[in-house]
Design goal:
This protein is α/β, with parallel strands linked by helices. It has 15 helices and ten strands. α8 packs antiparallel against α9, α8 runs parallel beside α11 and α11 runs antiparallel to α12. Bound molecules: 1,4-dihydronicotinamide adenine dinucleotide and 1,3-dihydroxyacetonephosphate.
Length: 339
Amino acid sequence: MHIFIVGSGAWGTAMAVAAAHPACGHHVTLWARDAAQAQAIEAQRCNVRYLPEVQLPAGVQVASGPLEAALSTAGADVVVVGTPMAALRSTLTILGDADITAPVAWLCKGFEAPAPGQAVGLMAHEVAAQVAPGLRCGALSGPSFALEVARAQPTCLVAASVHAQVREALQAAFHSPALRVYANADIVGVEVGGAVKNVMAIAAGLCDGLHLGLNARAALLTRGLAEITRLGVALGARAETFMGLSGMGDLLLTATGDLSRNRKVGLLLAEGLTLDAAVQSLGHVAEGVYSARTVVQRAQALGVEMPIATAVVQLLAGELDPRAALEQLMGRDPKDETA
Ligand SMILES: NC(=O)C1=CN([C@@H]2O[C@H](COP(=O)(O)OP(=O)(O)OC[C@H]3O[C@@H](n4cnc5c(N)ncnc54)[C@H](O)[C@@H]3O)[C@@H](O)[C@H]2O)C=CC1
Ligand SMILES: O=C(CO)COP(=O)(O)O
C-alpha cells in the first residue's frame, strides 16, 4: 500500500516508521509543511527535531511543498493526518477540496477550541462533517507513545470509523506483529477517550508532582474514567468503548507514563512553573492544555458533571492553585459511586 502522512511531528513520523517497517512493508510519503525540516529529515534519514535516535526505513519518502500537489502526485491508498488538533480543520479542508477518495484517518486527540462564529468546540469527526463531508474518514487512536511505536515495541491501537471500509483500510495499513490494530465503529467514544484522557493526565501529573500518593492517583484515574464515560455517553458513545484501548487503555498510559507530554505539564505545574513555561519546555504539543476548556463547555451544555476536568481548567487559567483544587475535589458532598 501507499500511505500518505500529513505532518512530521513525533507521531506522524513514528507511524511512518511503523508502516514502512519490513514487518508491514508499505511505501510511505511523510509530508512536512516546512521544506527545511523535510530536507533535514531526508538528509539524516531521521527526524532529529521530533523523534531523534530513530532511523527512517527505506520505504519512507519525505515530501514538502503544496499539500494538494503532493497528494495528487502520490495517489495514496490511505491518507493519515498527523498534525495537532489545531491544524485538523485546515488540513481536512484541503483534503475535502482535493476530492480525496482514499480513506482518511486523523491521529490527533483533542477537542477544537471554538472556531470563529462557533458556540462550542468540536470533535474531529464533527470538524470533518463540517469542512469535508464527502471524505470517508475516521480516527486512529489508543495507548501509544510515539517512541515505543517507532522502536517496534508491542502496541495496540484502535481504528474508529462508521465506515467499515475505513476501519479495514487502517488495519491493512498498520497492523503488524508489533502493532495490533483493533476496529471500533464507535468513533464518538474513541475520540472522547483520546481527548479527555489528556486532561486527566495533566491532573495525574499534578497529583504525582505534589506527592499526594498512590491511593490518590488510583482514585483520580478511576473517577477520571467515570467523568470521561459520562461525557462520552451523553455525546452518543457506547459505555463499553471506555473500558477499551481508547478509554481505560490510553488513560492508564498517559496518566502514568513519563513519556507523556500532558502528564509532564502537570508535573511541571506542581514544581511551580507557569503554564507558559511548562508548555514551552516540552517542544511538542500537549493537547489537554488546549482541549480542557472545550471539554468542560461541552459537558456543561449537556448537564454532565466533570469536577476533575473543571478543576484542571481553573488551574490552567490560574484561577486555582493545586492545593485549592485538591480541597475543592475532596470537599465535594458524598455521592453514589455509580450515579
Ligand atoms: N506523540 C505521541 O506519542 C502521540 C501523539 N498523538 C497525537 O498526535 C497529534 C500530533 O502529536 P505529535 O506528533 O506528538 O506532535 P508534535 O508536537 O511532536 O508535532 C506536531 C507536528 O505537527 C506539525 N504541524 C502543525 N501544524 C501543521 C499543519 N498545519 N500542517 C502540517 N503539519 C503541521 C508541526 O510542524 C509538527 O511537525 C496530537 O494530537 C497528539 O495528541 C497521538 C498518539 C501518540
Ligand atoms: O496520546 C498519547 C499516548 O497514547 C501521547 O500522550 P501525550 O500527548 O500526553 O504525550
